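User: Could you check the structure of this?
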Amino acid sequence: MRKWNWLLAAALVACVAAPARADDDVDRVRKVLKEHPEIVVEAIKAQGPAVLEVIENTARARQRDLERARFAAELAKPLQPALEPGRAALGPANAPVTIVEYSDFLCHFCAQANGTVKALLKKHPEDVRLIFKHFATGKNDARAALYFEAINLQDPKKAWAFMDKAFANQEAVATKGDEALSAMAKELGVDMNRLAKDLTRKDLAERIKADVKEARGFGFAGTPIFLINGAAVRGAVPLDILEEYVAVAKNPKAAATPKP
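Assistant: Sure, the predicted structure tokens are below.
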């Protein structure tokens, strides 16, 4: 047995044998480690991966607790996005949880989040309502947003189908712009004459600009961003994490309190 094993074992035996208080036990171990710091170094060398895994898991759990508490605190003072009639939405209007998503058709993470949100709605059809907004700051992503809004005026189902196509063909949208967007609309059977007229509507263009202004006003910088009952969730989080936020939004008291 190595020297540090003997020293640590002796300290632990002393802790068990002596009828001392817990603080005294900790002090004995601390004294041994202070006098022989090589114990810790050798232990880490011998069990490096396991030690690192414990540290990482502990830090991850701590961060998760803090994030849940932060989310619950924001639910108490939620942000208030504009929810005007006619917005593209999925899920029942009386759902207990409303998710307002700020997205960009040319954002890779938004494309990833699109599938996650659709899976969430499928698993919780009565609990969640999704309202889609835009955080489009470039030329072609703004055009994609405009197409989406214009198609939604004709047929909301086709608008959501257009979204899936746009996310799946981001490179074509980025490089070909209207050519690619128009081809997608045709594939979906959109009335192209009406679409051409609606693409010139100032109210739709102003809606997209208002979305961007609102997102920036809330202090958002990247995409995707979700407001879940007014509390922010940033990034393309996994489905299980998104479900946790939804559960907390339904019952804020269920939020875990961070441990000291």
